[in-house]
Amino acid sequence: MKITLKNLKIHRDMSEETTCFSATVYVDGKKVGIAKNDGRGGCNMYYWEDYGFGRKVEEWAKTLPPRKVPSVSMPDLTVSCDLDILIGEIMDKQEEDRWVKRQCRNKTLFRIEGDPADSYRTVKHVYDAGVKAFIEGKYGDAVVEILNERAA
Q1: Which residues contact 24 (CB under 8 A, 6 or more apart)?
Q2: What contacts 6, CB < 8 A, 6 or more positions away?
Q3: Taking Cα atoms as reference points, which of 98, 140, 101, 145 lies closest to residue 120?
């Protein structure tokens, strides 16, 4: 099964204990329901178009491998997968992709060896072959990633 989310709306200002969001859930390209969370703690709510199929999706998610959960106090924490965790991963990925696209619209972001994984250097020019040549000319083999290449 390939789960995708469309019409994803994340409301950070309303998120308290959990992420407040709403999205249309698709499985293998077919709309199957809606997922929501009011952001005040607790599990996601699912409104399936076909309840029986929705239950199958939930059971399928539980068969996936355990997931590593980001935690400051317990960095190696892993938990059993379920649909809430899977939807959270998909949301995080989509939100990251949106951020990358937005950032790369009118500037070039890159990292070199030794830079933290979540930190980027910036060239205030739209990415093109000239900007790439400039970065590679200045930093050579130390260039780890040009974020704009991922956004393309």
Answers
A1: 5, 6, 7, 31, 33, 34
A2: 23, 24, 26
A3: 145
From residue 16, how far is each of 40, 74, 86, 122 by CA, in Å?
5, 21, 20, 32
**Among 56, 80, 97, which residue terminates a domain?**
97
pTM: 0.80
Query: Domain range spanning residue 114?
Result: 104-151
Domain count within the chain: 2
Is the domain of 51 the same as that of 120?
no
Query: 26 and 91: one domain?
Result: yes
Q: Mean pLDDT by 10-residue block, N- to C-terminus, for the chain (152 residues)?
A: 94 86 96 95 93 95 89 80 93 90 92 91 93 94 92 68
The pairing of beta strand 67-68 with beta strand 45-48:
unpaired
Helix/strand/coil for 130 = helix
